[in-house]
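Researcher: I'd like a structural prediction for the single chain below. Treat it as a standalone chain; there are no partners to consider.
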Amino acid sequence: MTEKPYRPQEDIVALMTQFEQEVKESPELPNAATRLLRARLVFEEALEFVRSCGCTVTMSGSSDEGPAVIDDIRVVLDPNGAPDFTEYVDGCIDQLVVTYGALVAAGVKAQSAWDEVQRSNMSKAWPHCSVCDAVLVRGDREELVHPNHADAHGGNWHAVLKVHKREDGKFIKAPTYSPANLKRVIEEQIEQARVTALLA
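Model: Treating it as a single chain, here is the predicted structure.
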């Protein structure tokens, strides 16, 4: 069996075009009706996924139920719920569908935004020296350098990424962490669309 290439955003463009939904060619915040629709779709699919995990959502100020997801909203195990693996997978895919749809409705190409968020997420890990375990720092040109000296261990070391956690299990961001710059990504996509339109 030959596998079809994985092109989720292109598939969603085809789906939305077929169902006469707006597909933007350049990044732009959608109108209020589209934003409301997309917010409802994403929320609905997220809740369906929560249920497929055998969990439920509560509104509680009690930390006994676990950490808040946002404000006083918590996701907890549902004593009356049962996990369903098929629905779990369906929930994941449906979330991808509505999320890609929200990006397409806003004219955003996912790949470069994904790459920037992935770069940022990976920068949360702490870079250590493979020889002496020292925490590496950023150099003048943003490269990772040994904190003791440039030629530490005769230059025979490399960065090893490690996770640092608090006692409660929460990850601690590395001092070398850099947040995702999605504003730059969006501006680059707008400029690329403008140039493409001029050349057409």
